Amino acid sequence: MQFLADNFGLLWDAFLTTLSLSLLAGLLALVLGTLLAAARVSPIPPLRGLATFYVEVFRNTPLTVVFFFMIFGLPQIDFILGFFTGAVLSLGLYTAAFVGEAIRSGINAVSAGQAEASRAIGLTFGQSLREVVLPQAFRTVIPPLGNVFIAMVKNSSIAAGFATSELSSLLPRLVNADAGQLTAVLLGVVIAYMLITLPLAFGVHRLERRVAILR
Amino acid sequence: MRITRYAASLAAAGFLLTACGGSEAGNQAEEATENTAEVAEEVEFEAGTTMAELNEAGSITIGTKFDQPGFGLLNPNTEEPEGFDVEIAKIVAAKLGIAAEDIEWVETVSANREPFLQNGQVDMVVATYTINDARKQLIDFAGPYYEAGQDIMVAEGNPGGIEGPEDLAGKNVCSVEGSTPAQNIRDNYPEATLTLFDVYSKCADALAAGQVDAVTTDNVILTGLVAGSDGGFELVGNPFTTEPYGIGVTLGDTEFRNFINDVLEESFEDGSWAEAWDRTAGDISGTEAPEPPSVDRY
What we know:
heterodimer, A: 0% strand, B: D-Maltodextrin-Binding Protein, domain 2, 2 domains, five-stranded mixed sheet
């Protein structure tokens, strides 16, 4: 434990990196995921096709490959991203596919009568989605979205292999400094991750109960 | 609907294939080096020693690196590692009466060598393993069998004019997380910006793409990367540390350590050490075998 206290500065920096990476990627995933879900239920076929294409690309590609493409593939065509930016984009774009699918399942759970009724009173597709369908859809998909975001926080550890010094990159670094402290280092890193994921899980649970609707 | 779905998936797969086609696979497989170390047949070891146990079992598990050209690089064709470390390990195994094909190779990376030895997952580690005092608290070292030094690799023509570690100030320098060279830069050259990957091959990719200005680690590792770059990289050639490479064994196994030290000294004298160098690291870098270091029986 003394070892962890000695290296608290390192742990704190890495914790902040993981936290900011997760927040930024999570925001990107939420926005893009919502747009994807909307596109996939839209009445415009090319938009549906494009969204389906996106989801199938990112959902069926290992995250490590996405990172590799972003960090080493893009420079081949002279498009160089910063390492942290590359990590945010990789994680956000990848997670958006899962967020989109979760939200789409929520949209499908809203009874068709709701959408029909809102069209009947003269709302456009966009309006009915925004004002009627999505608010109800989000309520139903809070638990699966929580899962997606918790998985995303843990997935952020892949950035360690791509020049982002986040929490799990501390494992090799501190273990190399003193291999005798392996258990302490593991424990420290796990606790740091839980400081992000447990409040997230708790928040999701609270939110779920708060917005629950009786059907 | 169904057809669109399939079409989208197929298009997705195609997109990925083209996207990944751009990065070249650094295939540096070489022809299998034949092992010339003669396997000792009638060897007797005192009962109860590690040597006797290994000799009895007829096999040994050895940890080495799988990603370092010249020292320990997995040959994808034979699925066996090749390099100077591997040859040194074969010499030791041969003296235990164990043939090269009875060696079980386990990949060790910088961060898992001590745990593997402590848990008994490997019998010994020959993996560009720098001897230092912190590690001696956890495991014991035979050797050194080679002395490397930390150096710097830059792009062809050295556009940044980097001649030594002092010139790294304000530059973006790449190394591997959890390695001694990375820690050295952190401690002694804090003005440099460190970019850390998990393997050196990614550092080479980043240097090629211009994402970093330099790569730093032990010169022998850099030599392998320079050799594989077709002139894209060059070595600064100004080593600024001394990294004695040792063979890691379980803490307190003095008999095994002494045995390995004897084998190493013998190989220094009978020329098998220099031969191993010429076939592996020397072949890649085009350098003559250096003077063997003197074994440190601490």
